Amino acid sequence: MSADLFRPTSPDTCKPSHAARELGLTRGDFDRAVQFGCIRTVPDEGGGGGHLVERAEIERVRAQDGFPESLLDRVRVVGTAEGAALMGIPAGRFTRLARVGLLVPVAFYLNRYRAVVWLYLAEELRQFATGAENAHLLKGRTPETLRGRLAAGVDLRARNWRGRHMGFMLRRAEDPWARAGAVAAFLSPVDVADIVKDPYERAHLNRSRPMPPGHGVPGSPATHAAEQITTAQDADEIGWLRSELARLAEEARSVSPVARPAARPIRPVLRMAPRPIPPMARTVTGPAEGTTRFPKPTASPPEPESSSSEPTHRLTEPTHRLMGPAARTAKPSARPTWPTARPGEPALRHPEPMSAPRPAVRSAAPTALRGHGPAQPAPQRSPRGLRAWLRRRSTRRTGPARV
After folding, report:
1. Contact criterion met (CB below 8 Å) for 128 and 135
2. Ramachandran quadrant class, 114 (left: phi over 0; alpha: psi -120 to 50; beta: rest)
3. Largest Cα–Cα distance in the chain?
4. Contact, 348 vs 340, CB < 8 A?
5. Torsion angles phi and psi, residue 307, rounded to 5
6. Which strands make up the sheet holding 107-110, listed edge to edge?
7. What confidence score (pLDDT) does residue 42 get?
């Protein structure tokens, strides 16, 4: 922000806009008059970074012969069509002369079709047309050297404008960093960061860098087209600007070093010593409600070998039927106790799973046939194995055995 808002200008100076109104010029004509040296300015002492015009300078310009027409003729600019008519040549020949660098533009703008319109100083065009050394370029066949360059696609209008504009900014620079910023204005930020590696110097350089001519809203296609014109494109031009920026930056660094922030003492950081993580305590929990714990099986006495040769490892009834009503009414937490063998009886074995096939049960005595007399009692069979013992036990308690 300019300091003019807080500090009024001196009575001996005035702002550029006020000076343009007093001289009867538009702002564009006034800026070109300052650029070509027709009007001198002084830097603003208020610290705003701008320029002011002294009252004595305004009076000097007014006192010139033919004012203001003489001043307007010196700053008048024309386009391609008007410039060709001024020189008395076709517009195509005028464009070819400008592309090969014989006619240097002083300004440009983008029209509504985003096409670049170059502007030329009318006084320079008149001097070129009246020069005897340029007569062969205005009439007749274009020289072979120029036709070869045009066939190769050479267009030096943007490069010539950059060189002219950089010379104008270098003349207005007051300190070494401002001159370095004038050169850096035509390089890409990547090239500037490659040359000036110190971030503090690069920040100071960007503050001293003049603003490029505005052509539209930032980020718009017109702004991108203007950036391509104001940034160096050719390799030889980029190399020359890089070397010039390095030289000016070294000169500015030796004349006026960039101020840096004072170094602050770094306090030591107190950190707690690492402590080992204590082991987790064992969690003792009681048995869940509603659960039943079964006692561990105790070692049973060895079972005597059975004297019978018939296998006794199969059961004829499920476990809950063989154990009787007393065993069925016991608590579920109590494991059923299997009966042990009595003296003189065969040893007992644990029953196999319920999926084992159940053999058919034989009757105790065969039935008597009709008409053959009374039935003879069957001979008593010696009890053997767990099956006989369980049959006898079930008969005593519940009645006759079930078939």
Report:
1. no
2. left
3. 175
4. yes
5. -80, -15
6. 77-78, 116-121, 107-110
7. 86
Residues listed for the chain: 403
The angle, 0 to 180 degrees and rounded to 10, between the axes of the packed helices 176-184 and 199-208 is 80
Given a contact cutoff of 8 angstroms between Cβ atoms, the answer to whether 315 and 351 are in contact is yes
Least reliable range by pLDDT among 19-23, 139-143, 264-268, 345-349: 345-349
Average pLDDT over the chain reads 76
DSSP string, 319-369: HHHHTHHHHHTS-TTSPPPPPPPPTTSPPP-PPPPTTSPPPPPPPSSPPPP
Extract the tokens encoding 101.
Answer: 């660098």
Q: Residue 46: pLDDT band by 50, 70, 90 thresholds?
A: low
Instruction: Give the separation between CA 104 and CA 124, rounded to whole angstroms.
Output: 9
* Packed helices 122-130 and 80-87: angle between N→C axes, nearest 10 degrees: 30
The structure tokens listed for 381 are: 């069979």
Measured CA to CA, the distance from residue 277 to residue 28 in angstroms comes to 77
Phi, psi of 119 (to 5 degrees): -115, 140
Residue-by-residue DSSP string for 28-75: HHHHHHHHTTSS--EE-TTSSS-EEEEHHHHHHHHTSTTTTHHHHHHS
Sign of the dihedral defined by the CA atoms of residues 314, 320, 321, 322, in that order? positive
| Alpha carbon 213 to its chain's center | 32
- Take residue 24 and report the two structure tokens written for it: 């009867």
pTM of the model: 0.61
The H-or-E segment that residue 108 falls in is: strand 107-110
Q: Are 355 and 276 in contact (CB under 8 A)?
A: no
CB contact at 8 A, 98 and 53: no
Q: Are the C-beta atoms of 91 and 78 separated by less than 8 Å?
A: no
Tokens of 210: 């003049």
- Output the six-digit token pair for 193: 């960061």
Strand-pairing partners, residue 54, are 13
